[in-house]
């Protein structure tokens, strides 16, 4: 339910942003020196009715992004929904908020604001990368990280299920899993791990076909092959995560080192920008 809700929310948000961009495109395409004479200037300039409103909403979204950090670190908030739900909200605000701020700027960047703008875009795109790495770390239903022992037990349960319910010997399951070059990835430098993660995910369709052919060779009925292939794929993913357990955590650590400084720069300059705008009397509507 949550997944479909966010998909619907993203669709509405992108339609709204696309509508604003399409409407204001003649203004955005006008040279800066000519914009004050454009009929849309009073609406879409950074201090205009629409432009200013977009900046306020976008900035508030970026502030609300910090709710995820509070949920993760402050004990008082631990009862307020699952960590995975908070992360979904964090990512939504982290994508839509900057896009609204981009429209607020009317693509006019100069001075210290340009530093905040590019920091904001780096934070947004690195956040997408962070989400990808986050999904590579095994977690429970609430989004809390599983221990290595829990993941190993989960992997063993899947092998047991394949053996007990479908009569596939453990040795054959192990032999088939070993046919994938997962163990070799453990020897690769951590800086290259990102590309191996992407390559593994991009090979899902090919790997799935290989699993189906193996099951067919083992004499599994066609009616059960799809479900069983999903179980084997799950086991393979767990194997992948077990082999790369320490390196994925190390890569996630490096991502934090890169992501946080730009986020701090973005928030500091944003606060300065908002403070100066209010001090100079650039308030919305009033």
Question: Can you walk through the features of this model?
Answer:
It is built from 13 helices and no strands. The chain is mainly α and 286 residues long. It folds into two domains: 2-136 and 255-279, no CATH class; 148-243, no CATH class. α1 packs parallel to α5, α4 (67-73) runs antiparallel to α5 (83-105) and α11 crosses α12 (222-243).
Quick description:
The protein has 286 residues and is mainly α.
Structural domain count = 2
Give start-end ranges of low-pLDDT stretches: none
Q: Mean pLDDT score, rounded?
A: 77
Order of helices and strands: HHHHHHHHHHHHH
Key words describing this protein structure:
13 helices, mainly alpha
What is the secondary structure topology, with strand pairs?
Layout: H1 2-28, H2 41-44, H3 49-64, H4 67-73, H5 83-105, H6 112-135, H7 148-166, H8 170-178, H9 182-185, H10 190-202, H11 204-217, H12 222-243, H13 245-279
Helix pairs in contact: 1-5, 3-5, 4-5, 5-6, 6-13, 7-12, 10-13, 11-12
